[in-house]
Amino acid sequence: MSLVLLTRHTPVCTPYDISVARCQGSNTHTPQITISRSHHHHRSICGVTTMVNQTTTRLVLLALTFSTILHSFVRVNHELAALSDKSTSLQSVQHPSKSVQIKTQDPQQSRNLVAFTALGSGAAIAMVHYNVFAHFLDWDCIIFVHANEIAVPSKEAHMQEIARRCSIVRLPGVFWTHFLMTLTPELTRNYQHIAIVLDDVLAPTHGDSPVNVSKLLQTMQEHNLSSISPSIKGAFWKATQPQPRRCLWQTQHIETFFQIFSRELFQCWRSYMEYSNPQGFCLDLCLDQQLCPSLSRLAVDSNMTAYHLGRQKNLTSFVPESALVGTNLSSGMHRRVPKKVVMEGWGMCGTYNCPKVEKEVATPKIMECATK
Questions:
Q1: Residue 355's pLDDT band (boundaries 50, 70, 90)?
Q2: 3-state secondary structure 127-173
């Protein structure tokens, strides 16, 4: 069925005839545009347009440009809906900026959700790929991407494997807290745990202090914890850094690099996220004391170490060789050093009525130490 859309038609000196019709053989809603010049060749384009005279040619080009952008948004949503295999079910919730959909590997078995926020460079793809397949095969998974297809190509081999396993939401320029705001209570209500992992964190399964997500979950249950993290080499705050003694440390805050939350604590934490604080300043420092004190029982396990690469130039000088076993990452892999983040926004701590950031909130308390 074809449709011809006409606006004001002037029979005098009209050099273009433009009609709109459904693209033949297409399953999309993309219309076909035929632009023909009188007594000359014509060509077809997919978009929207109208019949115009010579004085409105520029408006036609603007309409075509707008149509292309609009069609891209429609195509992204269609691709999100078609990401999974026929056997994969999707949970979905609408958000003002995006329709977020999460692949469910097995609706009867999958009780946990991991969110990677936010993938921003090609150098980080391999680490995200490793963390997904090393730690979260039985978790539902969503990857937030804040870079365009040039910086993080969808057709890159690791990205294609990730896409078969996880849902991918790409919103260039969006900050990590804005992504997490899409994980509404309606979307997370069926999960026991929600893990938040940054794109530049490596959690090795080998080496002297391997990370084991199953053991972290077991520790949460045994000690009635609402959140846990391995120690993080490259963390800013001492409470999350590796400690001389290999112990389970109770702390009043955890820097969010590789952090597992109970559903209740995550939903409380998320409720304090605001568009006015896109980088999440003070959300970690204030979680236990002011934001969600009744739900917060936090610990860092220094028997395990993950690595926040941050501004490190390469892996060799930062990650032990033994920890790189099985990662498929070159030990000499050089990274493009990210721009230094201007640490503005600490005034949010005052908004949350938290202590000054120049000091540690408290010295971690030992809950349990490894016996060797």
A1: low
A2: HHHHHHHHHCCCCEEEEEECCCCCCCCCCCHHHHHHHHHCEEEECCC
